[in-house]
Design a protein that fits this description.
Layout (H helix, E strand, L loop, with lengths): L3 H19 L5 H10 L18 H12 L4 H26 L3 E2 L2 E2 L1 H5 L1 H20 L8 H27 L8 H26 L4 H28 L12 H4 L5 H9 L2 H11 L6 H13 L2 H21 L5 H15 L3
Antiparallel strand pairs: 1-2
Helix pairs in contact: 1-3, 1-4, 2-6, 3-4, 3-8, 3-15, 4-6, 4-7, 4-8, 7-8, 8-9, 9-14, 11-14, 12-13, 14-15
Length: 342
């Protein structure tokens, strides 16, 4: 069973692998990467800022490997690779969204500018691909490595396609719930699914189990995106909505509660939302009015139910694998841990 202690251990091990890859390169570009990872301050010095180090994708890769009876040490280069590709996506997302902060401090682009942030993100992606080739030193066959590289590239491309559709929807008010789910499956689900899939393949899983774990990760990723969207409107504290609007709301991002409200609202409320979104620039009062309209339509509760249903689907995928009983319990515990299942 997963405990905070062994999750912290896996996080630490992924983090050490990442530092071994990045910190040996003495060039300012890698200081930017170290800053995003939470190891360094804005000017390259070791950072004593209490940084929350999210290594979800790397940990998922290791857990999948362990769940099917594999060796996490063999899988470590793949865990580092998935984490780097995810961090590439994060850096680019911050530029695209105009989000000045991540994890309670300035985003990379806010410190170094958008152009250099794009360089850092692209470099992170390249390092991730190079990390996969280190699997050869752990006894993984060339054929399997080629398969894994192909899967990671395909997931990266899906994530880019999802971000494209997400940005494209900002100036539209006709995004359906089903279109949102397809976008989120690519933007947030593809890499999470890939992490579980390649971890299980390295661990020796059959294709059926690897495919089901890819589906599990995709459903988990969508659920976490839904939860993130809810937090953008109402905060992570259920009792106190934020007094300062989230930048995604002000940027007209079509969050899942917005898509639900547009699809289910009566004409009068659709007009009210249309009046808000047709404004060239949204202000704080617009965001608060939008939140009020959406909540009045029951979107908040409906979207929370969607998240719970997605997490249940993730659990069902795990149960249908050929992993051992202990392996299934390991993965289910992590889905519950990440999803905060009720």
């Amino acid at each position: 069973m997963i405990t905070k202690r062994n999750l912290d251990d896996l996080t630490t091990r992924v983090d050490a692998e990442l530092q071994a890859i990045v910190n040996k390169r003495g060039f300012p570009l890698y200081d930017m990467m170290g800053y995003h990872m939470g190891w360094r301050g804005a000017h390259g010095a070791l950072d004593d800022y209490p940084q929350r180090r999210d290594r979800m994708h790397g940990v998922l890769t290791l857990l999948a490997c362990e769940a099917v009876g594999g060796d996490v040490d063999v899988c470590m280069p793949a865990a580092a690779a998935l984490e780097m590709v995810e961090k590439f996506a994060q850096i680019h997302d911050d530029v695209q969204d105009g989000n000045p902060q991540r994890n309670d401090r300035d985003a990379v682009w806010w410190v170094w500018g958008p152009a250099q942030a794009i360089n850092a993100g692209d470099g992170m992606h390249a390092l991730g691909r190079l990390a996969l080739l280190r699997l050869a030193n752990r006894g993984i066959s060339d054929e399997r490595i080629l398969q894994i590289v192909r899967l990671v590239d395909a997931a990266s491309l899906r994530a880019c396609e999802g971000r494209f559709r997400d940005l494209e929807a900002q100036e539209r008010i006709d995004l359906s719930v089903s279109a949102y789910m397809a976008m989120a499956a690519d933007k947030s689900g593809a890499l999470a699914g890939c992490a579980l899939q390649i971890g299980s393949l390295i661990g020796g899983a059959d294709d059926k189990t690897a495919g089901l774990l890819a589906l599990c990760g995709e459903k988990l990723g969508i659920a976490l995106q839904v939860r993130s969207d809810l937090a953008a409107l109402w905060g992570r504290d259920d009792t106190v909505p934020p007094n300062v609007p989230n930048v995604e709301v002000l940027n007209k991002k079509k969050l899942i509660p917005v898509a639900y409200a547009i699809e289910n609202a009566p004409i009068s409320e659709k007009r009210a939302m249309g009046e808000i979104y047709f404004k060239r620039v949204l202000e704080a009062d617009d965001a608060f009015r939008l939140r009020e309209v959406i909540e009045g339509l029951g979107a908040r509760d409906a979207c929370e139910e969607m998240a719970q249903a997605l997490l249940t689907e993730a659990m069902d995928a795990i149960d249908n694998t050929t992993a051992s009983t202990d392996g299934k319990a390991l993965l289910r515990a992590q889905v519950e841990n990440l999803g905060g299942m009720r």
